[in-house]
Amino acid sequence: MIKTIIVTHHTLADNLIETAEIIVGQCDNLTGVSISKNGDVDKVRKELIELIKKYHKEGHKILILTDMFGGTPSNICLALYEPERVEIVSGVNLPIVLKLAGWLKDENQKLKEVAAKITEYGRKNIFTAAEFLDL
Length: 135
Hints:
Strand order of the largest sheet: 2-1-3-4
Structural class: alpha/beta
CATH architecture: 3-Layer(aba) Sandwich
Strand content: 15-25%
Largest sheet: 4 strands, parallel
CATH superfamily: Phosphotransferase system, mannose-type IIA component
Low-confidence stretches: none
Number of domains: 1
Radius of gyration: 15 Å
Mean pLDDT: 93
Shape: globular
Number of strands: 4
Helix content: 40-55%
């Protein structure tokens, strides 16, 4: 099974999960980790390491979603990448979180494939009004 950790600036991670749960119900495979404006980066790094250890011990692989590539959350997480065990995708948005809530119920998903599919899904779900309305 794949567990997902959403790591963002401020409270975006928790807000994304809370919003997803309003739409699709309980999302047990999603965990939020926030980095506040004056947050202790080392404390967040340790929290992530402990979560990863816990999930590995339980037999899970981990997909980490960050808000933007090059930001503090992404930079912290890139150091935690482990091929086939911990994958990282930057640019999390609500469509990605909603889609993952459904996909993660399938325990036979492969981590690298989920990361690739969710990245493509996120890209395909960004529109301008003109594109949508075909103007």
